[in-house]
Amino acid sequence: MSNEKHATIRKRVHEVLNLAARRLLPVVAFLVLWEGVSRLEVVNPRMFPPPSQVSVAFLEWYRSHEFARDVWVSCTRMLFGFFIGGIVGISLGMLTGRSPIANASLTPLVQLLRPLPPVAIVPLVITWLGIGNTAKIFSIAFAVFFPVWVNTHLGAAAIPTAYLWSARLLTKSKSRIAWRVVLPAAFPSIFAGLRVSISVAFIMVFVSEMAGASAGIGYQISVCHLAYRIDKMMAALAVLAAAGAAADFLFAWAARLIFPWMNR
């Protein structure tokens, strides 16, 4: 029995290592190619610095007092904007998806605003709300709202009628049906909208911080651009990408933990 257990553990470790190798090898190959192309001056190394130089710039930034401040400020803005936009998007999407009156009155207005590029409203938001956190969080929430609303609306509208008939046999409470039947049935669509919105939120963090800020990853990129510090600019972009990837991974992990029946 012990030998079988050890064999199972070894097999599992082998599978994990193989999966890690398959995922890391393309990244390592890309970094090696990038380093070689830059070192051999196939491209201008001042315009396209090698990963080794970007790493040095990252360590310089990391050891300064600015790194923790910039990451904290950007992630805080992203989380506030994401939660506000997500809550409003889910609430309105459930309403328009299940109520014909709300659908007829509110959906045309949302569809009218949806094609607006979120980046385009940033100057207007700054004019209204200034360059503080309120304007940045509003811009992020505005961008997050639409993917969440669309997916929630479609998910709520597509719930089979049989589910609702069965629920009405057990309870007449509309709020209980909404929480126990409609919301769980629409959750795969809601989850898809929220997951897409994570990357949208990080994009808007970058954009909003470049337009009037004194801290944040986007602010750091803007300053590096003016100072022609392309190596540090790339380091900041890598941190922004890593933060987005980590947020996406944690969100997917939490969703699987809370809703184990999901295979996404």
Helices, strands, pairings?
Blueprint lengths: L1 H38 L11 H13 L2 H33 L1 H14 L8 H8 L3 H25 L3 H10 L3 H37 L6 H10 L3 H29 L6
Helix pairs in contact: 2-10, 3-4, 3-6, 3-8, 3-9, 5-6, 6-8, 8-9, 8-10, 9-10
Mean pLDDT: 84
Characterize the biggest β-sheet. Answer: none
By helix and strand content, what is the structural category?
A: mainly alpha
Residue share in helix = over 70%
User: CATH homologous superfamily name of the largest domain?
Assistant: MetI-like
Distance between the termini: 34 Å
Global morphology: flat
What's the multimeric state?
single chain
CATH architecture of the largest domain: Orthogonal Bundle
Strand content: under 5%
Rg, Cα atoms, Å: 23 Å
N to C succession of SSEs: HHHHHHHHHH
Number of strands: 0
**CATH topology call of the largest domain:** MetI-like fold
Could you characterize what this model shows?
The protein has 264 residues and is mostly helical. The protein has two domains: 1-48; 51-258, MetI-like fold, CATH 1.10.3720. 82% of the residues lie in helices and 0% in strands. It has ten helices and no strands. It has helices spanning 2-39, 51-63, 66-98, 100-113, 122-129, 133-157, 161-170, 174-210, 217-226, 230-258. The longest helix is centred in the N-terminal third of the chain and has 38 residues, at 2-39. The protein is flat and about 70 Å long. It starts with a helix and ends in a 6-residue tail after the last helix. The model has no long low-confidence stretch (mean pLDDT 84).
